[in-house]
């Protein structure tokens, strides 16, 4: 069995006050000017029914308006009660305010047409200016509450829209903040990996060699390289931790590495890879004095750095070559290393380096490729290739 929703407590109060006021007016025999065809006592029927319909003004506004219209018409055939008319005006107001959007649009138009029609009709019938008073009363009973309800509803809807927009803006701001945090964490992870992985890879390789070879001279050289890389790696870690802890004005981050530091980078790689039979070469065909955007230089430097680190871990004996080429629209970075079985100690890899290089290239809107391919001497090489856009508007950083 379907149950109707309970009336709102304010609707109950309106119904009780309206019914009580109507009974007082009825007891004092104060009439509203009905025709009186049905006698004095009959005015209580529209009064009681309209008061009952007030209980539905919020939950079933359309049914309440239809019933209230019938009761206000019936009230005109009795002596009339002002409380019935006043409660009907509230039903019109509630039908616009709480009804469907379609009803909220149609009711003011309908009541306006009714007001105009009755005014013209009574003017034609009575042919006196006093007939305009009937039109004014009709407008106050029908059109005024409908218009008031429409205005209140429009203000309420505008307030709800503004609140929703504010909530959506706050939600979007929170999403942007979360995405910024994730992006910053990814950037920090790339920087930490690129700065420290080279040193830790050299330490892992030489410590393995020192443990596996029973040669005091080899062990001494390995320990020297381990110490140098551990000191350099510790300095890098301290610098990064200092940047994260201190965000004050006195903390100035170190300058980002540029391609001018590639010679020093390759020199360190030669020292670390000598025991594994690796040599390193740089082929820089960029025109002298060619300027590059700072994000492009940093990405290129990190890609070369990580490629050399991977070569120290995995490359077979031979020459690792880093090539740079500069065109009008892009900087091309290509690093090749011997690919095949490698004797001696090998450092473990996680694949994070390739992921970081691919992410750096994607952030600049570039292209990245990596993998084995045939070499010029019939062997196989591992190739890392990245094209970093440098023309205006192509970079996403």
Can you describe this structure in just a few lines?
The chain has helices at residues 9-27, 44-53, 61-75, 82-98, 101-126, 131-212, 216-245, 262-273, 294-314, 352-363, and strands at 278-284, 318-326, 330-338, 367-374, 380-389. It is α+β, with helices and mostly antiparallel strands and 397 residues long. The protein folds into two domains: 9-170, no CATH class; 257-397, Histidine kinase-like ATPase, C-terminal domain (Heat Shock Protein 90, 2-Layer Sandwich), CATH 3.30.565.
Q: Can you walk me through this structure?
A:
Residues 248-253 and 392-397 have low confidence and may be disordered. β4 (367-374) and β5 form a beta hairpin. This protein folds into two domains: 9-170, no CATH class; 257-397, 2-Layer Sandwich (Heat Shock Protein 90), CATH 3.30.565. A five-stranded mixed β-sheet has the order 1-2-3-5-4, with helices on one face. With 397 residues, the chain is α+β, with helices and mostly antiparallel strands. It has ten helices and five strands; from the N terminus they run ααααααααβαββαββ.
């Amino acid at each position: 069995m379907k149950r109707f929703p309970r009336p709102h407590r304010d609707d109950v109060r309106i119904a009780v006050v309206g019914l009580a006021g109507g009974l007082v007016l009825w007891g004092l025999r104060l009439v509203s000017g009905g025709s009186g065809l049905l006698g004095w006592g009959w005015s209580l029927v529209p009064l009681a029914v309209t008061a009952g319909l007030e209980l539905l003004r919020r939950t079933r506004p359309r049914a309440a308006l239809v019933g209230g219209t019938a009761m206000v018409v019936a009230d005109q055939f009795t002596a009339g009660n002002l409380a019935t008319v006043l409660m009907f005006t509230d039903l019109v107001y509630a039908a616009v305010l709480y009804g469907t959007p379609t009803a909220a649009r149609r009711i003011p138009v309908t009541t306006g047409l009714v007001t105009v029609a009755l005014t013209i009709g009574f003017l034609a019938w009575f042919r006196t200016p006093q007939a305009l008073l009937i039109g004014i009363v009709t407008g106050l009973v029908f059109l005024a509450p409908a218009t008031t309800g429409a205005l209140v509803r429009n203000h309420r809807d505008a307030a709800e829209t503004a609140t929703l927009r504010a909530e959506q803006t706050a939600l979007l701001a929170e999403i942007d903040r979360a995405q910024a945090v994730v992006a910053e964490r990814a950037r920090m992870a790339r920087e930490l990996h690129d700065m420290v992985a080279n040193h830790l890879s050299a330490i892992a390789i030489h410590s393995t060699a020192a443990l596996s070879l029973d040669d005091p001279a080899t062990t001494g050289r390995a320990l020297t390289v381990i110490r140098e890389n551990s000191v350099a790696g510790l300095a890098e870690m301290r610098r990064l931790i200092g940047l994260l802890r201190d965000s004050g004005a006195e903390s100035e981050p170190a300058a980002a590495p540029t391609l001018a530091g590639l010679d020093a980078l390759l020199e360190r790689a030669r020292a670390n890879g000598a025991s594994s039979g690796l040599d390193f070469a740089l082929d820089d065909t960029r025109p002298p004095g060619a300027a590059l955007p700072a994000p492009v230089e940093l990405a290129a430097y990190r890609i070369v750095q990580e490629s050399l680190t991977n070569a120290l871990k995995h490359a077979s004996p031979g020459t690792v070559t880093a090539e740079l080429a500069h065109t009008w629209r892009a900087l091309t970075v290509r690093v090749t290393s011997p690919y095949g079985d490698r004797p001696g100690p090998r450092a473990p890899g996680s694949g994070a380096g390739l992921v970081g290089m691919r992410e750096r290239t994607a952030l600049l809107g570039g292209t990245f490729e990596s993998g084995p391919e045939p070499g010029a001497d019939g062997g196989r090489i591992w190739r890392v290739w990245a094209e970093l856009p440098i023309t205006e508007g192509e970079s996403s950083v």
